[in-house]
Amino acid sequence: MINILDKNTVDKIAAGEVVERPASIVKEILENSIDAGSSLITVEIKNGGTDLIRITDNGCGIAASEVKKAFLRHATSKIISDKDLISIKSLGFRGEALSSIAAVSRCEMITKTKDELTGVRYCIEGGTEVEYEEIGAPDGTSIIIRDIFYNTPARRKFLKSASTEGAHISELVEKLAMSNTNIAFKFISNGQIKLQTNGSGNLKDIVYQLYGKEISKALCNVDYKKDGIKISGVVARPEVTRSSRNLENIFVNGRYVKDNIISKAIEDGFGDRLMQHQYPFCALKFELDGVDVNVHPRKMEVRFSDRNFVYDNTKEAVEEIFTAQSAIREVPIGK
Ligand code: ADP
Ligand code: MG
Fold first, then answer.
1. Any domain includes 207
2. ipTM strictly over 0.90?
3. Is the distance from the beta carbon of residue 24 to the nearest atom of ligand 1 less than 6 Å?
């Protein structure tokens, strides 16, 4: 017999693609806060996010009449049809996050728009509404997620230790802080402030905070613009390298991504200034059209319509650092 699955089952299955671990929940909610135009975002977690995640923003909020709708599958205010997919400027667009998160946790949202006098508090557990009330609230949105995977014990078992899950969240907040220097982030884990940025737009400040003096002292600015592409940020001179690509922070149209073409181009831009199997530090933002972000639900990969164009320009942007007039003191390899 062929069965048509009910909504709850469908949502739980879909949730598996979006919500892998606490960090994926934090990523989705933070992306919503960023898309909402927030300038201040606070992330609080307890026990690596497995017991509690609370994210508060001062963004546009959700109108009372739309709050329930936001939790439906494929509910999004960010695109209307597939035609919008090629010109996406927002981080979200699938309309799957809130429904997926609510399907596998106990979720409470308090939200208020600037135009409305009161806000809404909405609680939804395992995909089922448990409370809806109008209440006074500041402008913006705050979401609390408790008991991740409480109703999918098989998945709960796959969670790693609180410290491992917490480390994933911490890394994620760091990447988002680097790619959104105009937003003031505060990250609190088990009551302790782990990261606080001021939203001043200064990338070097954040790199200093996250990576310390050694890397900060070696930073060179990248400010590259050609027809159809803009590359900006910082790259560290080859005196600071690592044996993995961990320090290559690449942001494409506001998204943190892992991308082999860009990584390779950056490394080739260093040429023989890099020793074999050594990789540089960078925090580089790429702005260009022709990027397909619809490759994977978690959106860590992108596809370029013109890979060679991206490769060539990236390599050139890095090479320019080394040929610039203000010639940086070059440190010969091996010294
Ligand atoms: P998507 O981000 O792909 O649109 P989500 O399920 O993450 O889908 O969110 C659904 C909708 O809820 C969003 O399109 C947005 O309109 C609204 N929303 C979610 N979080 C926020 C927030 N923090 N501030 C304002 N609106 C939000
Ligand atoms: Mg979203």
1. no
2. yes
3. no
